[in-house]
Design the sequence.
């Protein structure tokens, strides 16, 4: 895929809020660099911040290293995360459209627009602190966000099912316009 096509598709899918297609792009980029993941690093400082975010996600898919995601404005755009260390911090536009499962992101602190439009299942984000507009438009199931603390506009417009948010503490505007079942 050419860089120009990558830019066009990433922006098109981002604007259409199509997380599945963004994650498909991450997989294509990862496959392109699977023999030499270090080569992806040249895109971490790309002028198009979303391309830099896709690069950090592809790098993580190949190496398991989350560090570059934590350092870029759109770090982790379309990331697929099944496990992570406890207590990570995400903000700005990080981990948007990500797909998180297992015990990923437990004890994390998430703010600003982090994790918007993400899909979270399993024990993801357990014991997390979420503020600002974090997790807006997200889909949460299983035991995601269990025992979490959520404030400000976090989780607005989200869809929450099963045991998601069980035992969580939520301030008044959290979960506004959300669907909960």
Sequence:
């Amino acid at each position: 895929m050419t860089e120009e096509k990558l830019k066009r598709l990433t922006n098109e899918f981002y604007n259409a809020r199509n997380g599945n297609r963004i994650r498909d792009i991450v997989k294509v980029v990862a496959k392109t660099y699977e023999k030499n993941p270090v080569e992806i690093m040249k895109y971490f400082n790309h002028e198009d911040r979303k391309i830099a975010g896709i690069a950090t996600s592809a790098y993580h898919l190949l190496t398991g290293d989350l560090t570059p995601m934590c350092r870029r404005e759109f770090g982790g755009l379309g990331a697929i995360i099944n496990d992570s260390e406890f207590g990570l911090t995400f903000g700005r536009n990080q981990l948007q459209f990500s797909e998180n499962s297992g015990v990923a992101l437990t004890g994390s602190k998430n703010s600003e627009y982090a994790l918007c439009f993400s899909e979270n299942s399993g024990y993801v984000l357990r014991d997390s602190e979420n503020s600002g507009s974090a997790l807006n438009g997200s889909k949460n199931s299983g035991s995601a966000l269990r025992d979490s603390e959520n404030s400000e506009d976090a989780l607005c417009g989200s869809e929450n099912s099963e045991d998601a948010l069980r035992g969580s503490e939520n301030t008044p505007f959290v979960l506004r316009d959300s669907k909960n079942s």
Q: What stands out?
A: DSSP finds four helices and eleven strands in the chain. The CA atoms of residues 37 and 63 lie 7 Å apart. Helices lie at 3-15, 19-32, 49-63, 67-70. The chain has two domains: 1-72, 82-181.
